[in-house]
What we know:
Blueprint: H1 18-36, E1 50-55, E2 58-64, H2 73-81, E3 89-94, H3 106-113, E4 117-122, H4 132-139, E5 143-146, H5 150-156, H6 158-166, E6 170-178, H7 196-207, E7 211-215, H8 216-222, E8 237-241, E9 261-266, H9 271-278, E10 283-287, H10 292-301, E11 306-309, H11 313-321, E12 327-333, E13 361-368, E14 371-377, H12 381-385
Parallel strand pairs: 3-4, 4-5, 6-11, 6-12, 7-8, 7-11, 8-9, 9-10
Antiparallel strand pairs: 1-2, 1-3, 12-14, 13-14
Amino acid sequence: xxxxxxDFEPFSAASSSTEDSxxxxxxxxxxCLELAQQAxxxxxxxxxxxxxxxxxxxxxxxxxxxxAGQPHAxxxxxxxxxxxxxxxxxxxxxxxxxxxxxxxxxxxALIAAGVARVVVGIVDPNPKVAGTGIQRLREAGIEVxxxxxxxxxxxxxEGFIHRMLYHRPFGILKYAMTxxxxxxxxxxxxxxxxxxxxxxxxxxxxxxxxAVIVGGNTVRRDNPLLTSHGQGNHDPMRVVMSRSLDLxxxxxxxxxxxxxxLVVTSTTASPTKRQGLEQQGVEVIALPELTPATVMHLLYxxxxxxxxxxxxxxxxxxxxxxxxxxxxxxxxxxxxxGGTDAPSPVNDLGFNRMTQALQLKxxxxxxxxxxxxxxxxxxxxxxxxx
Length: 386
C-alpha cells in the first residue's frame, strides 16, 4: 500500500536564499531515491522512480513506481497530495514520461494538477521520452530544473539506462577473493572467503538484480542457492549456463517452488538430462550458440535490467570478453591461502602485456567488516579504441 499525505513528517524548506533552495532540492531528490529503492529489483523493464511533492515547505505527497503495469511514482504522489498539488513543487529522479504505454503520460498528469515547478534528476534515455516530457511541462508554463543529484540518479537506474542505450541488460561481475587473489583453495573449497557482512551485502545485491548467472562448475562444486536470503523483497531468477548439461541430478537450484531457475544449454545437450531438469520445474532453453552475449540477449528479450554474474574464472573471462559485464564488484578478504593451482576470479583474457590490462573507471572502495570492497566500471569498446 502506498503512503498517504498524513503519513509524512513536515519538512521545513522555508527559505528564500539560493543556497537553501539548492539544499532543499538535493534533500528532496535524495528522498526520491530512497522511495524508488523500495521497489529495487521489481520494476523491470521499467526504471526505479520516486516522487515527492512539496508545498509551503512541507511534503504533501510522495510515492514510487512499484512494478511494471502499475501507476508511476508521480501518480501516487499526486493522489496523496490531492488539491495541495496545485502550485506545488514536484521532485522526481527521472524525467516524467510523455507517451502512452501501459499507463497515461505523467507529464500530462502534472500539468492537469496545476503544479508550479518540477525538479528532475536526469533525462529519460527512452527514445519515446528523451526530453519531450520536460518540453511538454515547460510549454505548459511550468518551471523545470534538470540535473539535481544527477550522478546518484544515474547510478540508481544504470541498468535501465544501459538497456535503453545498448539493448542488453547491465552486467555486474561479483567475486570474492583472498589477499593473494584466490577465490578458493587448491581443493576447490571456497566457504567462506569473506566475512558475514560481505555476504549479507551480496544478498542485498542479488535482491536488486533480475537474474544471477553461474556456470555448471559452480553448481557442481558449491551447490549454491543464489537467493537474497531474506535481505530484500525480491529473489532474482537463477540462470545456469551449461553446454552439455553435465549437472547434478539434485541441487538447491532445482528447488523452484519459490524461486525460478533457468538452465541455458546448447542444442546438442542430452535430452534425458533436459527432461530430468524440467520434471523438477526447471526451465531449459537450448541456444544454437551458447555464449554470454547470447544469454544476455535472451534476458534482454525477457525485459531484464540488471544481471549479476557470480561465476568462476573461466566464465567470468568469457563474459568480460563478450561485453556482457560493465561493472566489477571485488570483495577482498584479508586472508592468504596460497596454492599454485588455486583458482583466480578471472581466467585468461588473451592479454600478455600489462599495457593491455583493463583499467576500471570511477573506482570506489570501502570497508565491509574486515573485508575491502572495490567497485568500478569496465571501459566500453569505444573507449578501448581511443
